[in-house]
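User: tokens in, sequence out, please.
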């Protein structure tokens, strides 16, 4: 079964682009055919780091969003969409006006939302609103970003009481200065872990930190994707 991976979360700055790049690297390392789509017009971080496997997409019109389903069907690949903050309004319109959930069920395509949260109360309230709208249409994985907080007890309590069937994972924290260096250099995570020469390459201990972080992060992703066919 092919999947459409929406990397979302209405709040800005929670780590959606980090997860999008991490999923891209995971798919590449596991030989999973995919196309990345960067819908974040203001930052385009996914395009900068994974340009060879990513195209830009404009979600503000149906024709742009239609490329998501067309690409899955025509190329027999997974599609990964890096959503900008506050994009749910248009996503909701596109899905409801076009019967996207019903079409994907007919085509055997799974719609999967990676909903990224920090430990703030605003993330919790936005997650509650999202679950009320989409829980019957989309499979959701709540991603607790440990790089954006450490106390997820309120989100855990909500998941246990209201979303018992929803899977959650923890995205481990990478040393902040190392992550900033990766961001400033627009490295892929493979490049950050392996490139040893050049003006902006990471030092040996920085590369080691990235390798350890990737191993931990892949283990978390594997809880959701481990049984995928390549």
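Assistant: Sequence out:
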């Amino acid at each position: 079964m092919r999947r459409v991976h929406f990397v979302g979360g209405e709040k800005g700055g929670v780590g959606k682009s980090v997860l999008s790049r991490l999923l891209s690297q995971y798919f590449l390392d596991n030989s999973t055919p995919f196309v990345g789509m960067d819908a974040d017009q203001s930052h385009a971080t996914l395009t900068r780091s994974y340009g060879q496997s990513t195209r830009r997409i404009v979600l503000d019109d149906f024709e742009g969003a239609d490329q998501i389903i067309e690409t899955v069907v025509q190329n027999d690949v997974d599609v990964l969409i890096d959503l900008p903050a506050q994009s749910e309004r248009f996503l909701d319109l596109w899905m409801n006006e076009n019967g996207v959930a019903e079409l994907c069920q007919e085509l055997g395509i799974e719609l999967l939302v990676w909903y990224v949260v920090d430990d703030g109360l605003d993330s919790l309230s936005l997650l509650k609103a999202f679950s009320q709208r989409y829980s019957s249409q989309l499979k959701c994985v709540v991603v607790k970003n440990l790089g954006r907080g450490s106390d997820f007890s309120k989100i855990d309590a909500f998941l246990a009481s209201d979303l018992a069937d929803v899977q959650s994972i923890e995205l481990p924290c990478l040393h902040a200065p190392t992550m900033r260096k990766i961001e400033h250099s627009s490295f892929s995570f493979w490049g950050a872990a392996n490139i040893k020469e050049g003006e902006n390459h990471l030092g040996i201990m920085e590369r080691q930190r990235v390798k350890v972080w990737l191993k931990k992060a892949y283990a978390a992703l594997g809880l959701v994707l481990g049984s995928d066919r390549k």
